[in-house]
Amino acid sequence: MGHRSDNPFADLFVRVSEVDAKGGSRNVADGMLRLDPSAPTDPVRLELDPIAHRFARGSRIRLTIAGGSHPRWERNLGTGDDPATSTRMLPSHRTIDLSASRLVLPVVTSPA
User: Fold this and answer.
1) pTM of the full predicted structure?
2) Alpha-carbon span 15 to 28, nearest angstrom
3) Burial (CB count <10 Å: 0-12, 13-18, 19+), residue 11
4) 3-state class of 41 per DSSP?
5) In this structure, are residues 48 and 30 in contact, taking their beta carbons and an 8 Å threshold?
6) Are 69 and 25 spatial neighbours (Cβ–Cβ below 8 Å)?
7) Spacing of C-alpha 65 from chain mean position
8) In whole angstroms, what is the distance from residue 78 CA to residue 46 CA?
9) Phi, psi dihedral angles at 26 (to 5 degrees)
10) Which of 21, 58, 67, 98 is at 20 to 30 A from 91, Cα to Cα?
Protein backbone atom coordinates (compact mmCIF):
# COMPACT_ATOMS: atom_id res chain seq x y z
CA MET A 1 0.00 0.00 0.00
CA GLY A 2 1.19 3.53 -0.61
CA HIS A 3 1.56 5.46 2.63
CA ARG A 4 2.65 8.97 3.53
CA SER A 5 2.78 10.62 6.94
CA ASP A 6 3.74 14.13 8.01
CA ASN A 7 5.35 12.52 11.08
CA PRO A 8 8.09 9.92 10.45
CA PHE A 9 7.37 8.23 13.82
CA ALA A 10 4.24 6.38 12.76
CA ASP A 11 2.63 2.95 13.03
CA LEU A 12 0.39 1.07 10.64
CA PHE A 13 -2.13 -1.50 11.85
CA VAL A 14 -4.07 -3.83 9.56
CA ARG A 15 -6.85 -6.27 10.51
CA VAL A 16 -8.81 -8.77 8.43
CA SER A 17 -12.26 -9.63 9.77
CA GLU A 18 -15.10 -11.86 8.64
CA VAL A 19 -18.50 -10.15 8.45
CA ASP A 20 -21.46 -12.53 8.50
CA ALA A 21 -24.76 -12.07 6.65
CA LYS A 22 -26.31 -10.33 9.70
CA GLY A 23 -23.43 -7.81 9.94
CA GLY A 24 -21.63 -9.43 12.87
CA SER A 25 -17.86 -9.13 12.65
CA ARG A 26 -15.18 -11.51 13.91
CA ASN A 27 -11.45 -10.72 13.83
CA VAL A 28 -9.42 -13.21 11.81
CA ALA A 29 -5.86 -11.83 11.64
CA ASP A 30 -3.98 -8.62 12.27
CA GLY A 31 -0.53 -7.13 12.14
CA MET A 32 1.25 -3.94 13.08
CA LEU A 33 4.32 -2.22 11.71
CA ARG A 34 6.30 0.51 13.46
CA LEU A 35 7.75 2.48 10.56
CA ASP A 36 11.47 3.21 10.60
CA PRO A 37 11.93 7.00 10.26
CA SER A 38 15.25 6.53 8.44
CA ALA A 39 13.83 4.14 5.80
CA PRO A 40 11.60 4.94 2.83
CA THR A 41 7.96 4.20 3.68
CA ASP A 42 6.40 3.88 0.22
CA PRO A 43 5.33 1.23 -0.61
CA VAL A 44 4.67 -0.50 2.71
CA ARG A 45 4.54 -4.28 3.05
CA LEU A 46 2.86 -5.60 6.16
CA GLU A 47 2.47 -9.31 6.88
CA LEU A 48 -0.34 -10.49 9.13
CA ASP A 49 -0.13 -13.23 11.72
CA PRO A 50 -0.45 -16.70 10.17
CA ILE A 51 -3.92 -18.20 10.50
CA ALA A 52 -6.06 -21.15 9.50
CA HIS A 53 -9.57 -19.85 8.89
CA ARG A 54 -12.45 -20.83 6.66
CA PHE A 55 -14.72 -17.97 5.62
CA ALA A 56 -18.36 -19.01 5.61
CA ARG A 57 -20.28 -18.92 2.35
CA GLY A 58 -22.04 -15.56 2.03
CA SER A 59 -19.75 -13.75 4.46
CA ARG A 60 -17.67 -10.71 3.54
CA ILE A 61 -14.05 -9.87 4.24
CA ARG A 62 -13.39 -6.54 6.00
CA LEU A 63 -9.96 -4.89 5.83
CA THR A 64 -9.26 -2.27 8.52
CA ILE A 65 -6.25 0.06 8.27
CA ALA A 66 -5.42 2.29 11.23
CA GLY A 67 -2.57 4.20 12.83
CA GLY A 68 -2.40 1.86 15.82
CA SER A 69 -4.26 -0.57 18.03
CA HIS A 70 -3.78 0.33 21.69
CA PRO A 71 -3.86 -1.62 24.01
CA ARG A 72 -3.18 -4.56 21.63
CA TRP A 73 0.15 -2.89 20.81
CA GLU A 74 2.04 -0.19 22.67
CA ARG A 75 1.13 3.36 21.64
CA ASN A 76 3.45 5.24 19.33
CA LEU A 77 3.78 8.73 20.79
CA GLY A 78 4.93 10.18 17.46
CA THR A 79 8.16 11.54 18.97
CA GLY A 80 10.66 8.69 18.90
CA ASP A 81 10.83 8.90 22.71
CA ASP A 82 10.48 5.82 24.91
CA PRO A 83 6.71 5.19 25.25
CA ALA A 84 7.20 3.76 28.75
CA THR A 85 8.59 6.99 30.19
CA SER A 86 7.64 9.87 27.89
CA THR A 87 4.46 11.92 28.17
CA ARG A 88 5.03 14.14 25.13
CA MET A 89 2.92 13.22 22.07
CA LEU A 90 2.75 14.50 18.49
CA PRO A 91 -0.05 13.80 15.98
CA SER A 92 0.40 12.31 12.53
CA HIS A 93 -1.71 12.94 9.46
CA ARG A 94 -1.75 10.12 6.90
CA THR A 95 -2.45 9.53 3.25
CA ILE A 96 -3.02 5.93 2.22
CA ASP A 97 -3.23 4.97 -1.46
CA LEU A 98 -4.89 1.59 -1.93
CA SER A 99 -4.99 1.72 -5.74
CA ALA A 100 -1.93 -0.53 -6.10
CA SER A 101 -2.55 -2.50 -2.90
CA ARG A 102 -3.48 -6.12 -2.57
CA LEU A 103 -4.55 -8.54 0.09
CA VAL A 104 -3.36 -12.07 -0.65
CA LEU A 105 -5.42 -14.86 0.89
CA PRO A 106 -4.41 -18.36 -0.18
CA VAL A 107 -7.32 -20.60 -1.11
CA VAL A 108 -7.32 -24.30 -0.32
CA THR A 109 -10.11 -26.37 -1.79
CA SER A 110 -11.54 -29.32 0.08
CA PRO A 111 -11.60 -32.70 -1.63
CA ALA A 112 -14.99 -33.44 -3.16
Assistant:
1) 0.81
2) 8
3) buried
4) coil
5) yes
6) no
7) 5
8) 20
9) -130, 130
10) 98
